Structure formats: structure tokens, C-alpha cells
């Protein structure tokens, strides 16, 4: 299972990279705005900064909602750095743009997926990744993890290569449940990733080992 961090915060990206388990980064316009990164020039520069910190794929989202606009923007984003994956919304022109990029060998991440039907379309259009937002489904009393299971089943039925990138991950149990279901990738906040480290028995055990060592020294 690949681990992506879902943030535009460079310090958090550096911290996850330093842990040695990071496979990539996802961002979106809201995450950019949260870090105060606004204006096209600054946003493009920020993508390059992120690529220079991590080794894996970095999703950069188009703002256009029409086919021509998405193609123009996506090609410019892809030209920024070889690690860039063009992130496209799951709308009609987004599906067309996904197919276009897939035929050109440009990596894509189809975002804002909330149904198995949308996931099927993304795979048919040749998406590299597709992002079901599990936390936002949970927010409206709909089982986000069930969507991941449905997509896994459909993709396995037909051997689709599109990677299931579980997004809108909010906590460690989302990560563990996605791993059990077989999501290819999860993207979540640093807090959820670091949450996997924690167990009180580890802390108690380590404290005892150190105390016992110190008795003899
Ligand atoms: O990866 C998608 C993500 O950024 C959305 O997360 O927590 O805003 O639903 P959230």
C-alpha cells in the first residue's frame, strides 16, 4: 500500500519524507489556500518545491472545468516536473481529459469520486489513480469504506490498472481499514500517519527496557 500525504504544508511533507515511508503527495486548491499559497505563479512554484522534497508522484489539480482548459492547464502542470500527476475532477469533460492524458502517457488522478459508477468511468478513461473521498461520505452518514470495497471488487473483476487512492482519510482506522480492503494508495494527514506509531504498551515496554538497562550502568 502506498502512503501519500494530503497537504501542501512543506514542513509536514518534509517530516513524512524523513520518516522514510512516503510514496507521494496529494494537494488540492483548498489545501493550497490553507497554506496561504495563492496566485498561479506561486501555486506552480509550490508544486515544484513539493516535487523537490519527495521522490514519488505529486498530484496537481486543474482549475478549469472545460475540456480545452483542462488540457492546456494539465499539459502545463505535467511539464513542470516529471513527478507531477494531473488531478482532474470527475465531470464529463474531466473524463474526456483523462482519456486524452492517458493516451499521451501523462499520469492522472481523477478526484471527487463518490460512487462506484464514477470509479468505473475513471478506469475506463485510463486514469492512473482515482480518489474516492471516504471521510466526506462518512460525514453524510454513508459508509465511505464500503465504496472502497465496491471499487476493489469491480477493478479486480476486470483487471483494471487504475489505482484506488483512498482520499479524505481522516484517522488511523481509515488507513487500516483501507489496507484490509486492498486500496492501492491512501492519502491522509500527517497526524493519521503518525497515529499508526502509537501504542501505550510500546511506550511502557521501552521505558522498562531503559530503566532496566540503567540499573546496571
Ligand atoms: O484527498 C482529499 C482531501 O483533501 C479531502 O479531504 O478532509 O477535506 O474531506 P477532506
Q: Main traits of this protein?
A:
217 residues, alpha/beta, 8-stranded parallel barrel, 11 helices, 17% strand, binds SN-glycerol-3-phosphate
Residue runs with pLDDT of under 50 for 5 or more positions: none
Q: What order do the SSEs take from the amino end to the carboxyl end, as H and E?
A: EHEHHEHEHEHEHHEHEHH
By secondary-structure content and strand pairing, the structural class works out as alpha/beta
Strand percent estimate = 15-25%
For the sheet with most strands, the description reads: 8 strands, parallel, barrel
Give Rg in angstroms. Answer: 19 Å
Distance between the termini: 43 Å
- Total of DSSP H or I helical runs spanning 4+ residues: 11
Bound molecule kinds, no repeats: SN-glycerol-3-phosphate
Biggest sheet, spatial arrangement of strands: 1-2-3-4-5-6-7-8
Q: What is the total tally of β strands?
A: 8
How would the global form be characterised?
Answer: globular
Q: Which range best describes the helical content: under 10%, 10-25%, 25-40%, 40-55%, 55-70% or over 70%?
A: 40-55%
Chain-averaged pLDDT:
97
Structure description:
The structure is a single chain. This protein starts with a strand and ends with a helix. The chain is an alpha/beta fold. The chain has helices at 10-19, 29-34, 40-53, 67-80, 92-104, 116-124, 134-139, 144-158, 172-181, 190-195, 200-215; strands at residues 2-6, 24-26, 57-61, 84-89, 108-113, 129-132, 163-166, 185-188. α4 links the parallel β3 (57-61) and β4. α4 crosses α5 and α6 packs parallel to α8 (144-158). The chain has an eight-stranded parallel β-barrel with strand order 1-2-3-4-5-6-7-8, surrounded by seven helices. It binds SN-glycerol-3-phosphate (G3P). Residues 6, 26, 28, 31, 131, 133, 135-136, 167-168, 170, 187 line the site of SN-glycerol-3-phosphate.
